[in-house]
Amino acid sequence: MNKTAQHMLLYSSIFIIIIGISLFLLAVVLALTVFVAIKKYEHYKHRRLSRKHRRRHVVRVKR
């Protein structure tokens, strides 16, 4: 294998590794975003359902 082919192989492998890391990070960020959105939605839904919780929360804030 000549030098040019070795360099091409090296660059392509580095490029593939960088793309893999980028995709992994993107997937992690998306997963966290979806998880947080679901948690916030569940919390909002729960607060709308129970009025008692809201009243207790207001009292706790006033103290």
Overview of the molecule:
It is a single chain. With 63 residues, the chain is an all-alpha fold. The chain has one domain. It contains 2 helices and no strands. The model has no long low-confidence stretch (mean pLDDT 83). Keywords: Membrane, Transmembrane, Transmembrane helix.
Keyphrases for this structure?
63 residues; mainly alpha; rod-shaped; transmembrane helix; membrane; transmembrane
Write the layout of secondary structure elements.
Layout (H helix, E strand, L loop, with lengths): L2 H47 L1 H12 L1
| Proportion of beta-strand residues | under 5%
Percent helix: over 70%
Q: Specify the number of helices.
A: 2
Mean pLDDT comes to: 83
Structural class: mainly alpha
Tally of separate domains = 1
Task: Compute the CA-based radius of gyration.
Answer: 25 Å
* Low-pLDDT windows of residues: none
Provide the succession of SSEs. HH
- Oligomeric status of the shown chains? single chain
Rough outline: rod-shaped
How many individual β-strands?
0
Q: How would you sum up the major sheet?
A: none
Give the terminus-to-terminus CA distance.
77 Å
Transmembrane segments: 12-38
Keywords: Membrane, Transmembrane, Transmembrane helix
